[in-house]
Amino acid sequence: MIIELSVALVAVAFAVLVFFLIKTLKSAKESLDKVSQTLQEVQKTIDELTYEVKTTVRHANDITVDVQGKIQKIDPIVDSVKNLGDVMNELTLTMKQVSVTAIEKFRKSRELKTKAKAVSIEEVSLTPSEERTVQSYEAAKEKQSKGKIATALKGVDAAAAIWQKFRP
Hints:
With 168 residues, the protein is an all-alpha fold. 0% of the residues are buried. The chain is built from 2 helices and no strands.
């Protein structure tokens, strides 16, 4: 009877063990089902996001191509503006040099006039023969000075042309 009781006890213990094992396996199955469902939802969301990301990347590529095309169209305009700036800079420098030269000529001319006035013979009373001599001298000097001015202006023009050719 001990053997029978032992076998019955082992059978009950095995049945309890199987019962709890089945309960544990069912709980594990439910957890795995929930994990599987969650993974399916995550996969679905990732697929949707992948499509949206691909669409966004395509749009970004299209925009990049469009912007590059527009930049290439604008490049000649930017180059023209740069060239215009260089020309304006050259013009400004030239005008500055011309104005400095003109001011220097005016200053020298004024100084010469004041010096000429200081040594002028007009303030001294002259005899009629001396007066005629002075007038003929002034007439000859005027013709000579007009020729000198024309020669000087031609020289200035030639120097300016040479300067423009050799300037970087």
